[in-house]
């Protein structure tokens, strides 16, 4: 284990580091050999209010992924409110916040230069998705309402508005996804709405949030979590994304109430995690339970399926690998603190954990062999990942590449 108690990340897992002036608050992004980071400071502007955040305008940086060499930087005219979204251009929301958004707008950046910007809005603004030449944005105040906010679409080529409609609170990339010609949006945290990408018109909605981290469609299926009524259990609900009809509902008598925390989906099995420490394998066709597995040591925090195995982490730091077909344990490891899956694919797993002030990141093969590990005392951003290669940022402005490059 490599431990770092200073400001600069160090240890055998660190491939390179670089530092910017100021802090890094958002998740870095790795794409096509470039690392994109928002943060730092510049002298372009300060907010008009003493209570506004951040205290000065910030930047967007592009670094070469192999060695951390800076390729360009964009000096924004305000704080950078979001991680970069890279999709035929680099997109960020810039502006200020003092509890209410101030002069927030979407900016497109190409090679470090501002290509266009939308009109500023005095609302909390979020970039929800970028797809097929369109950027989708939402506004939010308390994140709880299903009306009185705005959802709108702009062309990524020139920033011109395509449409704008009244909608519920939505301001995060986890709140929306585009599948075919439909935009699925979580509004007010409790309603999943299907809207036409052409004009934003509502096609259907469900008063249930997604059971996945963000809206995801699996062969026309959406998996949602029903609200609790009349002291009944919460349920995982499978619905037709195109028609809105319910295929099946699932709960199990293991706790009062049954409280699902998420799902992961394979070809024919839906793996359901439950607050009381259970994992269920459910037939994707009819919602019938095939098997159950107890994680034994606390609430599940995240789940991912890769190559026929579901990987589950818990609030007490354990990592479980379970066969999707049978529910049999394949291996188990532990980290200090509360653990969560950072990334999972055919190259392996990256697991993060938090134990008081210490942040830990470990990479494993799919068979459970540790590839590398890293620890840091102090705040880290969420990790940007490419396979088992990882980029992190620190509150003191360090950018570090972890793993084998």
From TrEMBL:
Gene3D superfamilies per the UniProt record, alphabetical: YVTN repeat-like/Quinoprotein amine dehydrogenase (2.130.10.10)
InterPro entries, alphabetized: PQQ_b-propeller_rpt, PQQ_rpt_dom, Quinoprotein_ADH-like_sf, WD40/YVTN_repeat-like_dom_sf
SMART domains: PQQ
Domain of life: Archaea
Pyrrolo-quinoline quinone repeat domain residues: 178-372
Protein name (Swiss-Prot/TrEMBL): Pyrrolo-quinoline quinone
Organism of this sequence: Halorubrum saccharovorum DSM 1137
């Amino acid at each position: 284990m490599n431990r770092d108690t200073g400001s600069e990340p160090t240890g055998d897992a660190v491939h390179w580091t670089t530092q910017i002036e100021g802090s890094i608050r958002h998740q870095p992004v790795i794409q096509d050999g470039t690392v994109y980071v928002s943060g730092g400071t510049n002298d372009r502007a300060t907010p008009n209010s003493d209570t506004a955040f951040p205290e000065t305008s910030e930047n967007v940086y592009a670094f070469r992924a192999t060695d951390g060499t800076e390729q360009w930087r964009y000096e924004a005219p305000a704080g950078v409110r979001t991680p970069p979204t890279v999709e035929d251009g680099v997109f960020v929301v810039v502006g200020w916040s003092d509890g209410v958004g101030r002069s927030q707008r979407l900016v497109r950046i190409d090679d470090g230069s501002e290509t266009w910007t939308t009109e500023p809005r005095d609302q909390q603004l979020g970039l929800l998705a970028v797809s097929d030449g369109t950027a989708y944005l939402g506004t939010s105040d308390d994140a709880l309402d299903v009306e009185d906010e705005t959802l709108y679409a702009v062309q990524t080529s020139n920033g011109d508005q395509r449409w704008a409609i009244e909608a519920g609170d939505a301001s995060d990339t986890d709140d929306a996804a585009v599948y075919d010609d439909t935009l699925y949006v979580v509004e007010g945290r409790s309603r999943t709405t299907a809207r036409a990408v052409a004009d934003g018109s509502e096609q259907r909605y469900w008063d249930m949030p997604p059971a996945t981290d963000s809206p995801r469609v699996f062969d026309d299926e959406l998996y949602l979590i029903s609200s609790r009524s009349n002291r009944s259990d919460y349920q995982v609900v499978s619905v037709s994304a195109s028609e809105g009809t319910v295929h099946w509902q699932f709960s199990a008598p293991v706790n009062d109430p049954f409280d699902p925390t998420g799902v992961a989906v394979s070809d024919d099995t839906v793996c359901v995690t439950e607050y009381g420490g259970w994992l269920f394998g459910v037939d994707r066709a009819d919602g019938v339970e095939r098997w159950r597995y107890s994680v034994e040591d606390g609430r599940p925090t995240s789940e991912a399926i890769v190559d026929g195995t579901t990987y589950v982490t818990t609030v007490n730091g354990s990592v479980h690998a379970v066969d999707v077909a049978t529910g049999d344990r394949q291996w188990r490891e532990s980290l200090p603190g509360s653990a969560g899956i950072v990334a999972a694919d055919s190259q392996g797993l990256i697991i993060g954990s938090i134990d008081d002030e210490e942040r830990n990141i470990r990479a494993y093969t799919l068979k459970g062999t540790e590839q590398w590990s890293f620890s840091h005392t102090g705040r880290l951003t969420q990790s940007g990942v490419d396979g088992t290669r990882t980029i992190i940022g620190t509150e003191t402005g360090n950018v570090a590449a972890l793993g084998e490059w």
